């Protein structure tokens, strides 16, 4: 069972490669990190808007 799990992880790492708009080749790790960064950035924007609406700051 462990060997099949290792094989699946290796297959995913080699197959999950793509090219984005500027020609940069990216893998699944890069994509997940980018999505995490974008989610955090947009959450920060929403927090600023909430603070502007209700006047409270912090958490």
Topology record:
Blueprint: H1 2-15, E1 17-19, E2 25-27, H2 28-54
Antiparallel strand pairs: 1-2
Structural write-up:
With 59 residues, this protein is mainly α. Helices cover 69% and strands 10% of the residues. The chain has helices at 2-15, 28-54, and strands spanning 17-19, 25-27. It has a two-stranded antiparallel ribbon with strand order 1-2. The longest helix has 27 residues, at 28-54. It is elongated, with a radius of gyration of 19 Å. The model has no long low-confidence stretch (mean pLDDT 78).
Short description:
The protein is mainly α and 59 residues long. 69% of the residues lie in helices and 10% in strands. The protein has helices spanning 2-15, 28-54, and strands at 17-19, 25-27.
Q: In what range is the share of β-strand residues?
A: 5-15%
Helix content: 55-70%
Side by side, the strands of the main sheet go 1-2
User: The biggest beta sheet, please?
Assistant: 2 strands, antiparallel
Radius of gyration: 19 Å
N-end to C-end Cα span: 44 Å
Q: Which terms summarize this structure?
A:
59 residues; mainly alpha; 2 helices; 2 strands
């Amino acid at each position: 069972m462990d060997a099949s799990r290792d094989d699946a992880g290796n297959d995913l790492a080699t197959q999950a490669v793509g090219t984005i708009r500027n020609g940069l080749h990216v893998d699944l790790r890069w994509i997940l990190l980018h999505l995490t960064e974008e989610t955090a950035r947009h959450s920060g924007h929403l927090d600023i808007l909430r603070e502007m609406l209700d006047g409270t700051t912090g958490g």
